[in-house]
Hints:
mainly alpha, 67% helix
Amino acid sequence: MEPSGPTLFQTLINQRGWQDYQVFKRRYEQAAKQLAELEGPPSIATATIEKRQFFRYAHGEVRTPQTVARRVLEFMFPGLPAARLLGPAEPKPTALPDHHPAADGRNAVDPSEYGLEDVVMAAANESAQFAARAESSNVGPHTLEQLEADIRRLVVTYPNRPVGPLFREVRALRDRAFELLEGRQPPRYTSDLYVGAGVLCGVLANASFDLGRYDAAETQARTAFLFGELAGHNGLRSWVRGLQALIAYWDGRPVDAVRLADSGSTFTPESGTAQIRLESIKARAFGQLNRASDALAALSAADRLRDHLVEGDELPGGMMAFPVEKQLFYSSSTHLWLAGGQHLSDAEARADEAVELFQSAPPEQQRLGEMSLARMDLAMARLGRGDIDGAATQIHAVLGVSARRRTESVDRRIGHFSRQLALHPGAGSPAAIGLREVIIAHQERMPAQLPPGGSQ
């Protein structure tokens, strides 16, 4: 048998400094615990790797690991199937006959059979890692550029992707930022790393919140704010205070929400929408407190800030931006809290406009959770004026999105709507009964995206 050469597994552990068995074993056991928390079953948390097995993987003596080992390995090396990981580092090219039948399309080799996408991503990661090592310190311009690009991709795609799977990807990148901070780099790079790590902790806080893990979300947010303090970055500090205020609002602590939003207002970034977001959150919290004049004043303050907005966000955009459609549905929520005929009419108008703007984005760029919340506001407003059919149209759209991208805040709004519908004068109509049955069926079949303990 011809020598197979180094496996991709051996190449990658050498690059990461995991070639020592004890080092790799610790990493493997940590990954097993994280995998058990995120995806289960809990028994995976005790998985380990024997020394002999470790060397068999490195020398290409195993191509098909057992199920648990395969899952842990694929968790440690995202994007690489175990069979590819334990195969040769460089796949041997397939020899073509002299007449090259592939050239005219006959008998062409299907690249997907060779895991081309995995190979391409692995090659890109290897190149990025080599470039990072080639710089004079553990961090340099290329490393920061790559980190910023990865962060930008995550925050831009966050509103359109299921939260559970995304959580693991963000967590891995946060760990990478932490590793860089633990090394040695020039002070000018340390500040940028603090901002990057702070943004990633902020995204994890938002994801934990979306998964209904408020305690975990607040812990992540406190860490994110600390990084904003260390970097002296007003945009990050202001945004994180807004997130903390938002968590307090959803947790039924509107007084804390107002206090945190006021605190965030003391950190004024040179540009961006963070301050508009703070005023909009305050408006909803004041609405929850039934302080109508304060709520309307906060909405007016948000409108004035929008009129004088300086373009060019200090943060990477995406989920961290506060577009006008989001401001509109925060306004609609405020008017729903204040109740009364005029407020109900204002809530419906603003929610309707918000939904229209959310829908105008290309499907792959739509902010699904926020659009669902705007639809819930619109459904509540229509229910308030007795239009059950109009409300049902919005609810069906929300349930369709929630089936593939569930968030705790949307779940709560659906539950609240169902309770209000049961109390409605038209609750006994066929349309209302059918709508409640659809909601109940949806709630019964929706599993949690992360098990308890998975949001830390």
